[in-house]
Write a structure and sequence with these properties.
Number of strands: 6
Helix content: 25-40%
Largest sheet: 6 strands, mixed
Distance between the termini: 13 Å
Strand order of the largest sheet: 4-3-2-1-5-6
């Protein structure tokens, strides 16, 4: 069966989205820091971390490819969604009005795949998608992607596979590296080679550069597909 490879880009929700009790909870530890500059620095750090939590952030882009055919879609939210044109070809760029539309379109595709492959999808992408879907009351078509950890079906998480499920800990032979490092080691063009990283997403979104975010997210997925093929051919034992 075909394998779906995907990746998401997220951006923190505005602090105006939260009430005073929620904001107090988020920044509570800052109040324990006496020195003003250190307190301000920690607050900025927490604001940046909000992009990583599904209760404080939203999905602004989701790219997905069929690992066997390299055909797929890039779903991205944009204020100019009515003016954006979905491109024909092996990869279609699909502008979405909001996150609900994006997630609904994703789950409509996902239900047709028995297998998925990600890089750190077990630790980040999948729980993020699950929780955002639940918060927005979007029906989840596949709820089995966080099952038994020590298997590659239906979910092959390459971050788990290249560390052999963390067998070496943080400093051993199979220590974990980021996607950029693995790509360069295996001779794959890094998705970061165009000068964009995940840390730039929120700024790019504020500047209205949604299409550039979509293109960056697609580069991540293309690299993950190539890395998945290397793992499958050289390490997995799957023929």
């Amino acid at each position: 069966m075909a394998t779906l490879v995907f990746d998401i880009e997220t951006s923190a929700l505005s602090l105006e989205h939260f009430d005073e009790a929620q904001k107090e909870y988020l920044f509570r530890e800052c109040e324990r820091i006496a020195e003003e500059s250190a307190r301000s620095a920690r607050r900025t750090e927490i604001e940046q971390q909000c992009s990583l939590w599904p209760f404080t952030a939203q999905i602004v882009c989701l790219a997905m490819l069929n690992a066997e055919t390299s055909r797929g879609k890039v779903l991205f939210t944009t204020e100019d969604y009515e003016d954006e044109i979905g491109e024909a070809g092996p990869v279609e760029f699909v502008p979405c009005m909001d996150e609900v539309e994006l997630l609904t379109a994703f789950w409509d595709v996902a239900k047709h795949y028995d297998h998925i492959a990600t890089f750190n999808g077990r630790g980040f992408d999948v729980p993020f998608i699950y929780l955002r879907s639940a918060l927005l009351n979007v029906q989840i078509s596949r709820k089995d992607w966080l099952g038994y950890r020590f298997q590659t079906e239906p979910h092959c998480d390459l971050a788990e596979q290249f560390t052999f499920y963390g067998v070496s800990g943080r400093d051993g032979a199979a220590r974990r590296f980021n996607l950029d490092f693995y790509c360069k080691a295996f001779g794959i063009e890094s998705p970061k080679s165009h000068g964009v990283t995940g840390r730039d997403v929120s700024t790019m979104l504020a500047e209205g550069r949604s299409r550039e975010i979509a293109e960056y997210c697609l580069r991540d997925v293309k690299a993950t597909v190539l890395l998945y093929q290397i793992w499958k051919e050289r390490l997995s034992g799957i023929r």
